């Protein structure tokens, strides 16, 4: 790799303003293995689950992080071809008020 690991880690968390504001952390950054996280209290919606936008941010940045950790900056340029999120099917719930 042409740059050191700390340079890549900093680039992933500080280069894009909305990613920096998210509190994203790079927990693991090694060849063929990355793990990112965000503080839960900043990313929960009104029903207590992670915002879909936060999931998308993590997917996008994780792809770039994995690419950088494995191949460095050259000779390739990563382009995200697609990603999707599907919520698990929910069972109908019945509640009875007495």
General description of the model:
The chain starts with a helix and ends in a 27-residue tail after the last helix. The model has no long low-confidence stretch (mean pLDDT 82). It is built from three helices and two strands, in the order ααββα. The chain has 98 residues and is an alpha+beta fold. A two-stranded antiparallel sheet has the order 1-2. It has helices spanning 5-14, 17-22, 52-71; strands at 25-30, 33-37. A hairpin with a 2-residue loop joins β1 and β2. Helices cover 37% and strands 11% of the residues.
Entry summary:
This protein is an alpha+beta fold.
How many runs of DSSP E, i.e. beta strands?
A: 2
Helix content: 25-40%
Strand proportion, as a percent range, falls in 5-15%
Q: On the 0-100 scale, what is the average pLDDT?
A: 82
Q: Which regions are unreliable across 5 or more consecutive residues at pLDDT < 50?
A: none
Protein traits:
98 residues, alpha+beta, two-stranded antiparallel sheet, 3 helices, globular
SSE layout:
Elements: H1 5-14, H2 17-22, E1 25-30, E2 33-37, H3 52-71
Helix pairs in contact: 1-3
